[in-house]
Structures are given as C-alpha cells and as structure tokens.
Amino acid sequence: MTQKYDNLIGGEWVAGGAYTPNINPSNLADVIGDYTQASAAQLDQAVQAARAAFPAWSTSGIQARADALDKIGSEILARREELGILLAREEGKTKPEGIGEATRAGNIFKFFAGECLRLAGEIVPSVRPGISVEVTREPLGVIGLITPWNFPIAIPAWKIAPALAYGNCVVFKPADLVPGCAWALAEIISRSGIPAGVFNLVMGRGSVIGDPLVNHPGVDGISFTGSQGVGGRIAQQCAANLKKVQLEMGGKNPQVILDDADLAQAVELCVQSAFFSTGQRCTASSRLIVTDGIYTKFVEAVKARMAGLKVGDALQAGIDIGPVSSLSQLEQDLSYVDIGQAEGAVLVAGGQRVTCGTEGFYMAPALLTDTTAGMRINREEVFGPVASIIRVKGYEEALAESNNTPFGLSSGIATTSLKYATHFKRHSQAGMVMVNLPTAGVDYHVPFGGRKGSSYGSREQGRYAQEFFTIVKTAYTLS
Fold it and tell me: Which of 117, 119, 169 minimizes the C-alpha distance to 143?
C-alpha cells in the first residue's frame, strides 16, 4: 500500500478530502506517496490556528526560538542524504544536487537560529529635551508562504526560517507538484518544540487554496516565489487588501562571454548555468551573449562539452542532468525549441526527447544559435535546458544586450579584464551579478532578489530578510 501523508494544522495531522499520487519524473512507475489535498475550509482552519498561536509566539523568549530552529537545521543536516534522495525522486535533480539543496536548507535554519539572537534596535536622542527614543522591530503577524516546485526544500527553508526566527506564525502552501519535501520538512518542524499552530502545512492546488490564502483577512503578509503571471495577480490582490507582499518571479538571465575570456572556464560556467538542474532554476543563464572574436571557438567548445553530458535517472551515479519535472514542463520546453527554429534560430545541439532505462520526462539539452534579441526564445522564460546564443561585436553591445530584457534577476560576465568586470558589475541591471562564475548558485547568508519583472518587495535571505518579516516600531519615553 502507498503511504498517505496529511496536512499539519494546529499541531495535528489532518486528512483532506482526497489524495493525489506523487510521481517520480525519472521513473513514472515509482509512486513516492499519496498526499492529501486541503480544502478552502481547512485553509481557514490553518490561518485561525496561526492567529491563535501568534500572541504567545511573537512575545516568546528568543532563546527558545533559536533552540528550535537550530534543532530543525541539525536534523536536516543529519538526514541530508535521505532528504536529497527524496528530492531527486520527486523533482528530478540529480542525487548530488538534491543532497546539496538539503544541506543548504539545514544551513539556512542554522543561520536564522543565530539571527534570533542578533535582532537589534536603536536608542537615539530626541530633538526634545528629556525624551528618549527606541526603534525596534516586531514580527509582522501571520505569513502565507507559497513556494515553487524547482527548489522544494531550499526555498521553503529560506522563507520559513526567517518567518519563525522573527516571531511570526506560518501557513505554508508548497507547489502541488512537490509535496514530499514539504511534508518531510513540516514533520521535522513539528518535533522541534515550536508550539502548535505556529507552523501549519496545507497541501493542494493553488486554484483551491492559493487565492483563499492570499485574500484571507487573517493573513498579514504573503511571500511568493513562482511565475510572473501569478505573482502579478498576487500583488494586485495584496494591494487591494493593504497586505504586505514579497515576490520572486524568475528571470531571463544573460551570460556575457568576451573575447578575452578563459575559454574552458567560460564553457564550463555556461553549461552549468544553462543546463544543470535541468535548467529549472530562476537564476539559470538562458541567453549566452558572445563577442565576435571568441564566438566560433566558443560554440564548438560548448557543443563538445554538451556531447559529454549524461542525461538519465536522477538517482543513478554519473548522471549530469535528470529529467524535466513534469510532462507539461517537458512539452513547454520542446515547444520553445520549435518556436526558436520557426523564428530563424539554428538548433546546433540537443533539443529532443530522449529515452533512458526507465520511462521518464527526459530531454537532451538544447543549444540554439543565430538568434536575435526580439525572438521569443530570448524574451520569455523557458525554464528548461534550453540556451540561445546572441552574437555581438564587443563589450558595449554585449552590455546593452544583457540589459535588453524585462527581467533582472541574475547576470554574468566571463572576462580576464578588471576594467570590463568592474564596469559590468556597476551597469548590469540585475539584482545579482557574477564575474567568471555561473549565474546560478548563491550563498544562503546574503540577500537574494532581482530588479524589473523578476522581483517585487524586499530581498530574501540573510539579514535582509528582516525587512519583510518584521515591522518597525518607534517608542518615545519621557524621562
């Protein structure tokens, strides 16, 4: 019998009205488990439980919070291989990538355990004699967290950990495609010593519980990571309800390759940025902007490197790229390859569905050349192992082309020139800039976020997380 997994509401495991199977995209015969679907009424119960728990939790001792988060982080790290395998089974990342993501999640909870003890305020003099002024931060309230399927344990961790660290209560809705890691994380949190109702897990479709969570009057803020279309709608809903909102919505990230770049280094960082994790990262580099002098050598070297990539079951040793996460995502990826060619691009490598030892959603990474800035392949986020190359004359054109996008999450440059590297860091219109590094891959203790259509609201991760999860209070005292 397939194991069944329930929601966590008010400290109790609660079954929904139905269960849906969680299928391994590497092996469609492998059912990870049956996960319950919450109803709108159960979503309301979770919010009410969080509201009831908030007064005590928000004023509780910071040592208790720190201890609970440290315990969560320690258990995640101790079980990183088990959790990494679960992640690989349900999302399709390779096993090493899954273990790496689980490790990151554990480190995030450890970091915010320390932040519980580092939250500071100010005491400043008033312009009026005999009056003192204190500036402090307090928790926002009940936070609704909505996370995507591509990082099913790390992104929940970097939202849940600061929310709890700063004294908020949480209602967590993971992506319907990847409930397994969310449930495993919730189960760990449930045994950490955090009081009932402080953290709640509701699994199900966004059409059933997503909108009710965003619009619930008992929710004080929404932190969302996902598509630009859904994020824009959430922003409108939160504005209408005067609700605090934080959005991360993807990118169309450029990687510039200049004539003076170290060719081997440039090829490796581009291949990693564009194709590893099956290209299913909002920081993935899908636009490779290459200058004339290195263009021909670069294209040939990337093709040779791609020929050596191994696509297959995410749990098998030696695999570089696992499956696409779902059939619908695979169909979207393949359609963009067709769209690019219809617009005049040349497919020089990959781009087709492949078969492996098990039935799964496998795709050979695709490389398109002869593309121009106005093509859909260079304007819209594909979110798969598809990269296009844009040829430019020199640095100035490369910089202009890198900024020619409605997104602004991450960007990169490969160069040995300090002059160009310094100029690019200042003038790239992105929230994160990488020099001689992949555009995908960020630390957990520094801010994460972008510009333009990629992000809205304050930054995630690191100490900057307090900007969303707390509110500022100014108190005056007559001495």
Answer: 169
CA distances from 426 to 262, 399, 421, 422, 457 (A): 22, 11, 9, 7, 21
**How many C-beta atoms lie closer than 10 Å to residue 195's C-beta?**
14
Nearest by Cα to 324 from 312, 308, 336, 335:
312
Indicate which residue of 90, 97, 115, 248 is catalytic: 248
Within a domain: residue 201? yes
Place of tokens 């991360």: 248
412 within 8 A of 420, measured Cβ to Cβ? no
Q: Say whether both 261 and 375 belong to one domain.
A: yes
The pair of three-digit structure tokens given for residue 472, joined into one six-digit string: 């500022």
pLDDT digits (tens, 9 = 90+) for 376-403: 999 999 999 999 999 999 999 999 999 9
pLDDT at residue 288 in the model: 98
Please tell me whether residues 322 and 421 are part of one structural domain.
Answer: yes
Could you say which of 181, 282, 381, 460 is catalytic? Answer: 282
Q: Where are the beta strands (DSSP E) in 319-409?
A: 346-349, 366-369, 386-392, 407-408
pLDDT per residue over 152-174, tens digit each? 999 999 999 999 999 999 999 99
CATH number of the CATH domain containing 274: 3.40.309.10
If you count them, how many residues does the chain have? 479
In the annotation, is 282 catalytic? yes
How far CA 194 is from CA of 15, 171, 443, in Å, comes to: 22, 14, 27
Q: Are 358 and 26 in contact (CB under 8 A)?
A: yes
Predicted local confidence at residue 120, as pLDDT: 92
Q: Count structural domains, the chain.
A: 2
Element (H, E) at 426: helix 418-427
- Phi–psi pair at 122, nearest 5 degrees: -135, 145
270 catalytic per annotation: no
Question: Token pair for residue 279?
Answer: 């290209």
Give tens-digit pLDDT for 100-148: 999 999 999 999 999 999 999 999 999 999 999 999 999 999 999 999 9
397: containing domain: 253-435
388 with 471, same domain? no
Q: What 3-state class would DSSP assign to 308?
A: coil
Same domain, 46 and 119: yes
